[in-house]
Design brief:
Helix content is 35%, strand content 21%. It is of the alpha/beta class and 461 residues long. Helix 6 links the parallel strand 7 and strand 8.
């Protein structure tokens, strides 16, 4: 593996000083000691269950070339960690804040790669799918690095940055935020030359305060523009004018009316969409109008950056649902597993898709709580209850404390199907076991924290 940093260079960039110095170079950067090995720099970060400083010895034992340590902790750790590092021939670099050091290293690394064209994808819904589509199109043109999974946060994006090398022509970054100021950090690291905003919804509205606050933070993705960059916005976005105003660069709309060469589409239900573009008939396997918009956004951006018709077509036809996102599981009851995340917009889109869908058996929905909605929690769940009542489901199972309001609205609306609410997973599991039949369609939708994917083994052979 090629060298990322000389150890002295890493220390200088991170604003650190050596407690112990060895000569080994840094080839990889890791934050999980289980991924440590020869040539790694281990960055200890605080987590919800543990602190990375508790795993310094493990990282050293696995062969890390260097470890970062927060300065204020070194006096307590010096004897044990210092002895292990000395024995292993590893460097110890003391820094003020390991997370800031990680971000500084990523920023420095990308600055050196002047030939790489950097793309940022953000938005309340659809950013991971859109990022994958963009990367798939560009990768057919030239070597392309892309954010793995959803490494899109102030921790994830720096880690994704280290996967970009001089061999790449493009780098596609997903940029996700859940607090004020985070986009400044992400945009400051990636410095994207093209940014696509899928939409402005209510995901993470609790921490960000309002939909206007979300739009304001997403717009910060353009903060580093100097006139040569490109911003891609959905033509029907209610905040379009706000997002476009004052952008120092070219603003390019995408969507059914704006995407050049788009000639219409045919809904194929669970089998996806037939897209007519530039005289081509492209069978796009991801279902729903929302995924069509993701495809049009990706297509518009990729073509603007030079992707050919063949690259666009190949990537769209090869698209596959990501784990937990718009997955179709066939055999036994057919399952729509879309429970990687949920917010009011994505919940409504799924309900709207399923409503007209012809199905030989019953339609069953398991709807889990939508988290991080702040003061809007009760009202948004109530509204989802009203919409679920009209969505044509034979059975509705509502799960989570927040869904109690949805259940009340469901009953108030006069919904005549089978409906239950519970906050107990064991009860939910038993209810679904009793209900689901092989000919049924089962929809699983809820926030990541609800872990509705646990239900899949209970109802499929």
């Amino acid at each position: 593996m090629s060298k990322l940093f000389a150890v002295a260079e890493a220390a200088a960039v991170a604003g650190g000083r050596f407690a112990l110095k060895a000569g080994r170079a840094v080839e990889r950067v890791v934050i999980d000691s289980r991924q440590a090995g020869p040539g790694t720099l281990f960055v200890p970060l605080p987590g919800s269950r543990t602190d990375g400083h508790e795993h310094l010895l493990d990282a050293l034992a696995r062969g890390s070339a260097a470890v970062l340590v927060e300065r204020r902790r070194w006096r307590r750790l010096a004897a044990v960690v210092g002895a292990e590092a000395r024995q292993r021939g590893a460097s110890v670099i003391l820094v003020a804040r390991p997370l800031a050091a990680l971000q500084d290293l990523a920023r420095f690394h990308l600055r050196r790669l002047k030939a790489v064209l950097r793309v940022g994808v953000t938005g309340s819904n659809g950013k991971t799918t859109t990022k994958e589509l963009v990367a798939g199109m560009l990768a057919r043109e030239a070597p392309t690095a892309a954010t793995a999974g959803n490494l899109n946060s102030e921790i994830g994006l720096p880690l994704a940055s280290f996967q970009v090398g001089p061999q790449h022509r493009y780098a596609v970054f997903e940029m996700g935020i859940n607090r004020r100021g985070e986009m400044d950090v992400l945009a400051g690291i990636a410095r994207p030359q093209a940014v696509l905003i899928t939409n402005i919804g209510t995901a993470h509205i609790g921490p960000l305060g309002s939909q206007e606050g979300i739009a304001r933070e997403k717009k910060r993705a353009f903060r580093g523009f100097n006139g040569r960059q490109k911003a891609f916005l959905f033509e029907g976005e209610p905040y379009y004018r706000y997002l476009a105003r004052g952008v120092r660069g070219q603003v390019i709309p995408f969507g059914p009316k704006s995407t050049p060469g788009f000639e219409g589409s045919e809904d194929l239900g669970l089998d996806g969409t037939l897209i007519h573009w530039e005289g081509l008939r492209i069978r796009f396997p991801l279902f729903g109008h929302h995924n069509l918009l993701n495809a049009l956004g990706a297509l518009t951006l990729a073509v603007e950056l030079g992707a050919s018709r063949e690259s666009v077509r190949g990537a769209l036809e090869a698209a596959a649902a990501l784990e937990g996102r718009s997955q179709i599981l066939r055999g036994g009851p057919t399952v729509i597993q879309d429970c990687y995340n949920a917010n009011p917009e994505s919940m409504r889109r799924l309900l709207e898709f399923v409503k007209p869908l012809a199905w030989p058996g019953r339609k069953i929905a398991v709807l889990g709580s939508m988290l991080e909605l702040g003061e809007a929690t009760h009202e948004e769940h109530r509204l989802i209850g009203a919409e679920a009542a009209r969505a044509g489901f034979d059975c509705l199972l509502l799960f989570g404390d927040e869904m109690a309001g949805a259940y009340e609205e469901l009953r108030r609306s006069g919904y005549s199907g089978y409906a239950e609410w519970t906050a107990d997973f064991a009860s939910l599991r038993q209810q679904l076991r009793n209900l689901a039949r092989p000919e049924d369609l089962v929809v699983l939708k809820g926030s990541r924290g609800m872990e509705l994917e646990r239900l899949v083994p209970e109802i499929r052979p």
